[in-house]
């Protein structure tokens, strides 16, 4: 496939991924849309550190074995958990949760309990880890949603064959993410 054509598609996909990451979504349990009747807390701010938003990228690379150009998607590891979620069962590691809590507190200010007392950071980290360990974390499928957003545009501009190729590459990327799980 033509390198210039793939560069255009890479730019479309990268922009769509970044746009999907900026949409606020309510948090859910793993494998479900939420608990029926549970209080709605609203959508949380989608960006804590901005690392995923900054580093997610679709690039065109030459396959050394075939000599053909291919799309290659790159993103930090947290993108996998944001996309697919995390199954319940074990507590997640402390360090990434602590870093996330610090970043969220900087954005929102201190967090209080039902009595109005401030919750200490160490306690908050434990509560978040326990919740993820017990209930998991539902992903938001931003990769699929981003592709579905640009698919009609790719189909219209480049045709069925190119749209099919891009869909194949997206599926291959998602499968590769899930293999690392």
Structure summary:
It is built from seven helices and four strands. It is mainly alpha-helical and 181 residues long.
Description:
The protein is 54% helix and 9% strand. The chain contains 7 helices and 4 strands; from the N terminus they run H-H-E-E-H-E-H-H-E-H-H.
Write the layout of secondary structure elements.
Blueprint: H1 3-21, H2 51-55, E1 57-62, E2 69-74, H3 78-84, E3 85-86, H4 94-108, H5 121-135, E4 137-138, H6 142-158, H7 160-179
Antiparallel strand pairs: 1-2, 3-4
Helix pairs in contact: 1-6, 4-5, 6-7
Q: Provide a count of the helices.
A: 7
Low-pLDDT runs of 5+ residues are: none
Tell the overall outline.
Answer: elongated
Largest sheet: 2 strands, antiparallel
Q: Strand portion, in percent?
A: 5-15%
Give the CA-CA distance, first to last residue: 31 Å
Measured on Cα atoms, how large is the radius of gyration? 19 Å
Average pLDDT works out at 85
The number of domains is 2
SSE-based structural type = mainly alpha
Number of strands: 4
Order of strands, main sheet, comes to 1-2
Q: What is the H-and-E element order? A: HHEEHEHHEHH
As a percent range, the share of helical residues equals 40-55%
């Amino acid at each position: 496939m033509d390198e210039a054509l793939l560069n255009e598609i890479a730019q479309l996909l990268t922009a769509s991924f970044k746009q999907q990451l900026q949409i606020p979504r309510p948090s859910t349990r793993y494998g479900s849309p939420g608990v029926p009747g549970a209080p709605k807390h609203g959508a949380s701010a989608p960006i804590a550190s901005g690392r995923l938003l900054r580093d997610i990228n679709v690039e065109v690379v030459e396959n050394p074995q075939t000599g053909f150009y291919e799309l290659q998607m790159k993103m930090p590891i947290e993108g996998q958990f944001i996309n697919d979620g995390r199954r319940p069962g074990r507590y997640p590691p402390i360090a990434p949760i602590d870093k996330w809590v610090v970043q969220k507190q900087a954005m929102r200010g201190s967090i209080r309990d039902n009595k109005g007392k401030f919750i200490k950071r160490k306690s908050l980290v434990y509560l978040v880890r326990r919740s993820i360990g017990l209930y998991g974390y539902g992903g938001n499928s931003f990769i699929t949603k981003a592709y579905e957003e640009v698919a009609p545009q790719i189909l219209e501009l480049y045709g069925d064959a190119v749209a099919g190729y891009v869909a194949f590459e997206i599926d291959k990327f998602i499968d590769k993410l899930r293999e690392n799980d």
